[in-house]
Amino acid sequence: MRKYTILHTIETAGPGGAETVLLNLASRLDSTRFRSIVLLPEGSWLPKELRNHGVPTFSMEPGNRYDFGLLRTMARLVRQQQVDLIHSHLPDQNSYSCLVGRLTGRKTIATYHGALRPADVKSLKGALKLRVVRRFAAAVVVVSKYLEAAFQNLDFPGDKLFCIPNGVDVDKFARAEGGHLRRELAYGDRRPLVLMVANLRESKGYEYFVKAARIVADSGVQACFLAVGELHESIMPRLMRLVEELGLRDRFVFLGFREDVPAILRDVDVFVLSSISEGFSLATVEAMAAGKPVVVTRSGGPQELIEDGRTGFLVPPADPEALASRICELLADPARAEALGQAARAKAHRLYSLEQMIRQYEGLYMRILNSR
C-alpha cells in the first residue's frame, strides 16, 4: 500500500487546543498509510513536542509569515518532500495553504477551531482569505455544529464542509494519579478546588470567573480557584488587579501553563469554563474524560458538549452570578457532582475519543486523495 505524505501546518506554536490537535494527528496517524511532516513557526512548546514524537518539523523563517516568502517556503517544501496532501489549521494559515495547494497542484484540507473574528469576515483582507479557502480548499473541517452553521452562513458549499469534533486521550485523563497539586499548594483534602483551563485571552472571559470566585467566597464556601493556561501580558495585569480589588489574593491562583493537566484535574472538585466565545473547548472534554462535574457557558461549541443537568451545567456567558450559583450547587451536593461527572466521562468516551477523531480524519484524507 502506498504511503501518503501529509504536510500539517499551523500559524502558532502553542500551547493551545488547535496545536494539540495537530500534534495528535501528526504523531498518531496510521504509520503504514501516512507520513507526517509539519511546517510551523518557532516556539517553545509544539516544535519540541513534535520532535519528541519523532515527527519531522520545518520552521517558517522569521519575517516571511503571511507574505509571499511564506508561499515560496511552503511551495518549495511541498515539492522537496513530495507532499500528497496539505492539512492546515487556523484562519491565516488556511488561506496560505490553499494558495500553495493551488500553485503546486496539491489538495488542501483547512480546519477551523473557533469562531471567526469580525476582521476575519468584514475586512477586505479577511474576506479575500475566506474566498481563497472557499474556492480552493478540497475540504473545510469545523469542530462543532455551531461552527458548521456559521460557515454555511458564509456561503461555504455544503459538500465541502465536514464536522469532526476534537478528541482527547480519554484513558489518560481517566487514569491519571492525583494528589500532588494539593501537596504543592499545601491545601488539605477538605478545601474545594475549582479549576479553569484556558490560555488567558479576551475570549475566555476570565474576569467573570474571578468575579464568580468572589460571589462564591461571599456565600461562605472556603474554595480555592485555580487558572491553568499560558499567561498573556495583554490581559494579565488587568486580571491581577481585579483579583486584588476583590480581595481574592489567598483564594485565586494563576498557575500558568502546565504539562500535568490530567493529574491536576484529578485533584479538583469542579471544572469551569467562562468563555464568551468558544468554537469547541478541548479543555472541557478533558475535564469530562476525567469524570469532573463541569460548569460552562453557552458560548458556541460548549452547548454541544454538555447536556444541561445531565452531563454538567450550562450558564449564560458574562454572568458571574449564574456561574457562582452552579459552582456552589455542585460543591454543596457531592453525590450530584459525582453523578454528573460520571455521565460526562461516559459521553466523552462515546463521542470525543482521540481514536475516533483520528479515524475520521484518516477517512477524510483517503476520500480527498482518491477523489478526482
How many helices in DSSP terms? Answer: 17
Question: How would you write the strand order of the largest sheet?
Answer: 3-2-1-4-5-6-7
Question: Please, what is the average pLDDT?
Answer: 94
CATH architecture of the largest domain: 3-Layer(aba) Sandwich
User: Quick one: CATH class of the largest domain?
Assistant: Alpha Beta
Fraction in helix: 40-55%
Radius of gyration: 21 Å
Number of domains: 2
Tags for this entry?
Rossmann fold; seven-stranded parallel β-sheet; 47% helix; alpha/beta; six-stranded parallel β-sheet; 372 residues
What is the gist of this entry?
With 372 residues, the chain is of the alpha/beta class. The chain has helices at 17-28, 46-52, 68-80, 91-104, 118-122, 124-136, 145-153, 170-175, 180-185, 206-218, 236-245, 261-267, 282-289, 302-305, 320-332, 334-351, 354-370; strands at 4-10, 34-40, 57-59, 85-89, 107-112, 139-142, 161-163, 193-197, 224-228, 252-256, 270-273, 294-297, 313-315.
